[in-house]
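in:
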């Protein structure tokens, strides 16, 4: 397979989006490269060329846009220099150039100067051994964006040494690393895992790699998922893999929000031919995603209303689950979601989710809590850490800690004694005792010690997503067409997680 690459002069600099040539036309021409530097890693799947596009499609992708048309106010803004290292997922529609155009908007607090190295199908492994990448990194950037080949999240194992090496080069140059979270492909049974598994794998892959190098993530893939909740929205191109102009524009808005911590709502066209209405929708999605990926101020970690509107922190859903549509506590419609067979959700891993002490609380509804369950129906769970389930005629809570003698704290309560309808369920752990609460009243406690035990990523791990399962036992290897273990058949609302054990008075206020 051949990959398109661009050669750079050693002293090539970029200012306000203008790419400087080495002076040798041949050195800046697109070349066919069959060598190993940009070849996909050996663990890539058979369709590894999915990130490669025909030469005509990404021609000029290493050429940054002109600064023509900037007025004096724009020039006076601080400039942020961003280098994109990836493949055609970045190069198609010239994502870096779109970012430059967004930075020209009057509301932008900064302008952007960019360059890119985006040979088709390239991986972090290939970039790490590419001398052109090493030269580019040394050219004085504020931020270097790293995007891996799109199928790596469900085939690569553990933390990639190539990423660790690239990050060290970037930090040595004085720049910061920013990871570009990509998106699931349109599901094709012979080419990719089902959609839910793709979304979970992509999130885990980039978040866990970011944690390993203390870097940030531009959550483009999560923004795509949010936007595609609207069935009328199309972000993929005809190949079901690469972005169309809407997909690239949404990605640029996510990068804008990540780099500036400002809303992209109200920005310009980015040089693309999208309608004002489409741009406004994608801008709003990008900003909502940016906010949803931030953990809340302590003691809160996150809140998930489980309502019709995708509000609160980031949430992944199975294809069968429809958020909202059910009256929640107090009768408000639609503020709750019905769970059941194949209907489950997951809170994707993000920095701050794994607190050493916790409270997890939510509201649940069943018309009859005395119903005998033939399986253990899980309300929420995090593999290796904690779980709350309706088992036969009991509500059972389990917690595991780092205590060397820990066999798990366990609490059981006869749930058939509850009145029909809505109840608040919560578990808390304060470093000394694990407790279960119903309607802010303590119903059981088990002493324990140490920190909450979370799964430690292993070198050969592929499908550990470290998400919090909602309405299911675990979602690490869940497929969108199959329920991941015993499901909860009932209605859930207002899930919240905190980084310490809340008091009784605090639980009463939830």
């Amino acid at each position: 397979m051949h990959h398109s690459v661009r050669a750079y002069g050693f002293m090539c600099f970029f200012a306000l989006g203008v790419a400087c040539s080495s002076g040798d036309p041949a050195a800046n021409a697109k070349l066919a490269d069959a060598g190993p530097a940009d070849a996909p890693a050996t663990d890539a799947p058979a369709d590894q060329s999915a990130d490669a596009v025909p030469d005509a499609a990404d021609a000029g992708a290493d050429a940054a846009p002109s600064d023509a048309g900037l007025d004096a106010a724009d020039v006076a803004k601080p400039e942020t220099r961003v280098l994109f290292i990836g493949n055609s997922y970045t190069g198609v529609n010239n994502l870096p150039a779109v970012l430059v155009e967004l930075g020209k908007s009057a509301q932008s607090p900064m302008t952007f100067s960019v360059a890119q190295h985006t040979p088709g199908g390239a991986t972090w492994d290939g970039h790490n051994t590419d001398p052109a990448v090493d030269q580019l990194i040394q050219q004085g950037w504020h931020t270097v964006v790293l995007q891996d080949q799109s199928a790596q999240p469900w085939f690569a194992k553990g933390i990639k040494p190539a990423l660790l090496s690239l990050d060290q080069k970037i930090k040595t140059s004085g720049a910061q690393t920013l990871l570009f979270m990509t998106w699931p492909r349109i599901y094709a049974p012979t080419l990719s895992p089902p959609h839910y598994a793709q979304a979970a794998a992509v999130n885990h892959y980039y978040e866990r790699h970011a944690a390993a190098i203390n870097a940030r993530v531009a959550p483009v893939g999560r923004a795509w998922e949010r936007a595609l909740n609207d069935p009328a929205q199309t972000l993929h191109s005809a190949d079901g893999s690469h972005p169309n102009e809407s997909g690239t524009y949404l990605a640029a808005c996510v990068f804008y929000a990540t780099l500036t911590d400002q809303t992209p709502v109200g920005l310009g066209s980015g040089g693309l031919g999208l309608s004002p209405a489409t741009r406004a929708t994608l801008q709003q999605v990008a900003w909502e995603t940016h906010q949803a990926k931030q953990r809340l101020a302590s003691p809160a970690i996150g809140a998930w209303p489980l309502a019709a509107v995708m509000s609160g922190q980031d949430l992944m859903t199975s294809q069968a689950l429809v958020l909202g549509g059910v009256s929640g506590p107090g009768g408000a419609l639609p503020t709750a979601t019905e769970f059941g067979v194949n209907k489950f959700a997951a809170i994707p891993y993000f920095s701050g989710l794994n607190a050493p002490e916790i409270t997890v609380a939510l509201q649940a509804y069943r018309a009859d809590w005395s119903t005998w369950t033939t399986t253990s129906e899980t309300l929420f769970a995090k593999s290796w850490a904690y779980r709350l389930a309706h088992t036969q005629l009991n509500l059972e809570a389990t917690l595991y800690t780092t205590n060397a003698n820990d066999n798990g704290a366990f609490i059981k309560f006869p749930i058939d004694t509850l009145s029909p309808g809505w109840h608040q369920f919560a578990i808390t752990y304060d470093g000394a005792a694990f407790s279960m609460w119903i309607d802010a009243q303590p119903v059981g406690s088990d002493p324990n010690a140490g920190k909450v035990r979370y799964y430690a990523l292993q070198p050969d791990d592929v499908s550990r997503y470290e998400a919090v399962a909602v309405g299911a036992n675990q979602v690490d290897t869940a497929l969108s067409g199959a329920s991941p273990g015993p499901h909860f058949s009932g209605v859930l609302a207002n899930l919240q997680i905190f980084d310490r054990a809340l008091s009784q008075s605090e639980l009463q206020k939830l």
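note: DSSP finds eleven helices and 23 strands in the chain.
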